[in-house]
Amino acid sequence: MKGLLAEFKEFINRGNVIDMAVGIIIGAAFTAIVTSLTEDIINPLIKLITGGNGTDVAGLTIPVAGTANGIDFGAFISAIINFLIVAWVVFMIVKAFNKMKDGTAKLPFLRNAKGEEVIEHAPTCPFCLEEINVGATRCPHCTAELSAPAAVTVEVVEK
Q1: Which segments of the chain does DSSP mark as H helices, in order?
Q2: Confidence (pTM)
Q3: Each residue of 93-122: pLDDT tens digit?
Q4: Residues of the chain with CATH 1.10.1200.120
Q5: What residues have CB less than 8 Å from 128, skipping those under 6 apart?
Q6: Are 128 and 144 contacting, i.e. CB atoms less than 8 angstroms apart?
Q7: Are 159 and 115 spatial neighbours (Cβ–Cβ below 8 Å)?
Q8: Distance separating alpha carbons of residues 92 and 155, to the nearest angstrom
Q9: Burial class of residue 139, CB neighbours in 10 A (0-12, 13-18, 19+)
Q10: What is the distance between the alpha carbons of residues 25 and 20, in angstroms, rounded to a whole number?
Q11: Class at the top of the CATH hierarchy for domain 1-105
Q12: Which of 80, 13, 70 lies closest to 42, judged by CA?
C-alpha cells in the first residue's frame, strides 16, 4: 500500500500533471468567456441583422412538431462561432509558445577552451534520429544497439 501511495505522490508531483490541471481550469474559464461572448453579444447582433424578435433568430429556426425547439440553426451557428474563437485562441497560444521556444535558440552561445562560440547538440540515434540520453548504448525508441555510448556533439559557430 505504501508503494502505491508513493507512486501516486510521484505521479501527482510531476510537472506535466500540474500543467495539465492548470490548462484544463483555464480552458474551462476561457470557454465560459467565449460562450458569454457568443450568447450575449454575437447572437443578439445576428438577431438584429436577421430581424429576430429577441427570443429567436428569425428565419433560422424551423419548427418541428413534437419538439420544444425544432431545428435551431442559430444555436448551431453559435456553436460554430464558439469553436472558431476557441480554435483561434489556441492557435495564437501555440504560435506564441513556438515563438518563445524559438527565441531561446538565440541565447548567448557557450564558449569552448579556445574561446570559440559553440552550440551543444543532444545525442541522436543514427537509425531513427530521435534524441537519446548521454551515455546510452541502445536507443529507447527503435531499440537499435549503438556502436559507442551516445555523446553530446559540439558545433563551432561560424561568424
Answers
A1: 2-12, 15-37, 43-50, 73-103
A2: 0.42
A3: 778 877 777 665 555 567 788 878 888 888
A4: 1-105
A5: 139, 141, 142, 144
A6: yes
A7: no
A8: 33
A9: buried
A10: 9
A11: mainly alpha
A12: 80
Q: Which of 33, 76, 73 is nearest to 52 (CA)?
A: 73
Which residues fall within 8 angstroms of residue 72, CB to CB, at 6 or more apart?
56, 60, 61
Chain segment 25-58, per-residue pLDDT in tens: 888 888 888 888 877 887 777 777 766 655 555 5
Distance CA 37, CA 85 (A): 10
CA distance 136 to 128: 14
